[in-house]
Known about the structure:
This protein has helices spanning 10-15, 32-40, 54-67, 83-92, 109-114, 126-134, 158-168, 182-190, 200-203, 212-219, 242-252, 257-264, 268-274, 298-314, and strands spanning 21-23, 45-48, 72-77, 97-101, 118-123, 139-143, 149-150, 173-176, 195-198, 226-229, 236-239. By secondary structure, the protein is of the alpha/beta class. The strands form 2 sheets. An 8-stranded parallel β-sheet has the order 1-9-8-6-5-4-3-2. Strands 7-11-10 form a 3-stranded antiparallel β-sheet, with helices on one face.
Amino acid sequence: MQFLLLANNRVTQLFKIEYPIIQAGMVWASGWRLASAVSNAGGLGIIGAGSMYPDILREHITKTKVATTKPFAVNLPLLYPNIKEHIEIIIEEKVPIVFTSAGNPKTYTLMLKEAGIIVVHVVSSSFFAQKAEAAGCDAVVAEGFEAGGHNGREETTSMILIPAVKAAIKIPLIAAGGIATGRQMLAAMILGADAVQIGSRFVCSDEASSHYSFKEAIVNSKEGDTQLGLKQLVPVRLLKNPFSMAILNAEKNGASLEELQLMLGKARAKKGMFEGDMEEGELEIGQVSSLINEIKPAAEIVKEIWNNFTAAASNPF
Length: 317
């Protein structure tokens, strides 16, 4: 199959990586250990800047450059309060690739590209994919409704989103949302993706900075154990626990924005994913968590996905 010819793969060529497997830049999970491990294994590791103060981001970039000589990226939510400081650090540290999300790509793409940085933007619709292409982005990540964390309001699943975005743009397309295995990767590429971005599977890696209790809860999760909530604020997919169920019940009972914001409070995601509070913490994870059944090194995850992908491509049925 054509997409198995990696010499012709647009994403591996663009990023100068071995496999078209990108590790998502997840808050409270994607530090330098995970990013460097994935890059060393032949994929593209990403530092998740959304949960980092500027000095912490610089520290993680510095440590990643020591731990790997291969390309890596930083994921940058454009609505982050310290966005300008983050961009200054990224340019100063000569980060080769930036994935932007949660905002207008037109705002900073030109500045980043003028600094020699490859820019990729995360979208949830073909309309926003076209906007990213027009803004000068080098590629887009089309993230389906199945994905963990903050989601698009359109609620379009990956099965629909990938071919829709493929038909709408000419730049490389990276599929995300509901992908944790090589067979799912194959399906995404058959639908038109050049590569895949995987988050939830890498949360359950040894190198992820997410709390062990969170990883263990993911491994033990079943179908239906995640649900999208906080739709009035910013839609987010969460593993069900007392906090998420309280939020869902409040929404059903017509809670106001102010009431929901009060319930959410501050540092709720850190409390759950990083500190391991399984009762009152925010636990962001995708639907594909039900297919994850063990915690293992990131390099083994990359190898397993790739071997499963090539086997499935040789014998898809």
